[in-house]
Amino acid sequence: MLGSLSNIVKIPELRRKLLITFGLLVVYRLGFRVFLPGVNVNAIEEMLRKGSEGQGGLQQIFAFAGAITGGALNEANLFSLGIMPYISASIIFSLLVKVIPSLEALSKEGESGRKKINQYTRYATVGLCALQALFVVAFLKGGAGLRQDLVLPYFRDSFFFVLSTIVTLTTGTMFLMWLGEMISEFGIGNGISLIIMAGIIARMPTAMYRFVAGNIVHPLTTNGDRLDVTLGVLKLIIFIALFVGVVIGVVLFQQSQRRIPIQQAKHTRGRRVYGGQRQYLPFRINAAGVMPVIFAQSLIMIPVAILQMFGINLSDTFKAERGFWYISLVIVMIYFFTYFWTSLQFNPVEMANNMKEYGSFIPGIRPGRKTADYLDEILSRITLVGAAFLCAITIFPTIIVHAMGVEAALAQFLGGTGILIVVGVALDVVQKVESHLLMRHYEGFIKRGKIRGRRGGS
């Protein structure tokens, strides 16, 4: 490992890419110290110190959105929206391409078609920024029973505050899009993914500090009684061990594949024989990535939180920390969206037709319809395993909250969308760094085998 790190420094191009990536990510984090015009900075910081518990349904939506996009809607700063509007627009258009024939035809036109769809995505991003900025304005003005002092009195009823907030947040998101493109072009890895990962990781020091302060430095109960420091240290050790174990487990599942052998037909031309090679068609166990978890939690949490804003309290039934029906419904919806998203990404009939067209076949399986049925059966089986993995990684933080008594803000780093995104992006960066090392005849991070890069939907 140390030798590989020293080799990175020896390659000027790779060293420059890493420095550019790190520098642009620092710029991204500095933007979180630029507050929106007209907000009460002291009140915002006080609210953040106290945490987000008990702040209402809108705050729960903001906390969930920040956990999956790296934004901070409740911090009222330049990058509060994060990259969430662009991610939402991208997901919308990825679904529309599958159902609207004109967009599907445009996507098949090559680079020009992709650029056109990307342009539509940017336009949709601006509209989503304006819509989501209105929720931020409602939050800052104290809607749904929230604090009333987050905006300075002079700006609270001013139209200028609404307009300036929308413009500022939209500009911040568009700047993050540009920042991500610069990282992708001049840095290393996917810029948008790295920005999301940096936003998620940045939350961990604060959550860890609260845990250490409440269980080791000042271990007090709600009644003011002092707790045993040894118990707090033991909890910390167990948490670190669980974190390492979860990361290893996620890496194994993210890299796991079902490889289907494919044989090419032989073609004889004169005295030469072409083809006849055996290759493999890889199907990832977690082919749907993190999208099913995001869809499932969003469709449950957001309606419940909105109802809570209007005085309809369903927290006893659907509260994420202890609700049996919440967990059961999440599992059902994760399975549904895993199969749904996988069916959108993989079409067995189209894959079978492409194999038949190029003269390839699966040994023992007839080309055409039989091949499509076989691929569909394989996809159904591995999707079942992948969905079970997603369910386990989603509900694991809930188990930790009950078993160890830690805060949900800290337990979320042991599962859910955050750990899937962070591990997936980290694997992608390591794979790209290793490819640079191997291209210049240096030894990579892994001596035996290679790290497989991510594919879409992760």
Count of extended strands: 5
- Proportion of residues in β-strands: 5-15%
Order of adjacent strands in the largest pleated sheet: 4-1-5
Helicity range: 55-70%
Oligomeric grouping of the chains: single chain
Q: Low-confidence stretches at least 5 residues in length (pLDDT < 50)?
A: 52-56, 454-458
Structural class: mainly alpha
Task: Looking at this protein, list some descriptive labels.
Preprotein translocase SecY subunit, 67% helix, 2 domains, two-stranded antiparallel ribbon, globular, three-stranded antiparallel beta sheet, disordered C terminus, 19 helices
Task: Give the SSE layout.
Elements: H1 2-10, H2 12-30, H3 41-50, H4 57-69, H5 84-99, H6 101-107, H7 111-140, H8 153-156, H9 159-186, H10 191-201, H11 204-217, H12 229-255, E1 257-264, E2 267-269, E3 272-274, E4 278-284, H13 291-309, H14 315-318, H15 324-345, H16 348-357, E5 360-361, H17 369-404, H18 408-411, H19 416-439
Antiparallel strand pairs: 1-4, 1-5, 2-3
Helix pairs in contact: 2-9, 2-10, 4-10, 4-13, 5-6, 5-7, 6-7, 7-9, 9-10, 10-19, 11-12, 12-17, 12-19, 13-15, 15-17, 16-17
What does this 3D model show about the protein?
This protein has 458 residues and is mainly alpha-helical. The protein has 2 domains: 1-202, Orthogonal Bundle (Preprotein translocase SecY subunit), CATH 1.10.3370; 204-414, Preprotein translocase SecY subunit, CATH 1.10.3370. Helix content is 67%, strand content 5%. It has 19 helices and 5 strands. The chain has helices at 2-10, 12-30, 41-50, 57-69, 84-99, 101-107, 111-140, 153-156, 159-186, 191-201, 204-217, 229-255, 291-309, 315-318, 324-345, 348-357, 369-404, 408-411, 416-439; strands at 257-264, 267-269, 272-274, 278-284, 360-361. The strands form 2 sheets. It has a 3-stranded antiparallel sheet. A two-stranded antiparallel sheet has the order 2-3. β2 (267-269) and β3 form a beta hairpin. The longest helix is centred in the C-terminal third of the chain and has 36 residues, at 369-404. The protein is globular, with a radius of gyration of 25 Å. It starts with a helix and ends in a 19-residue tail after the last helix.
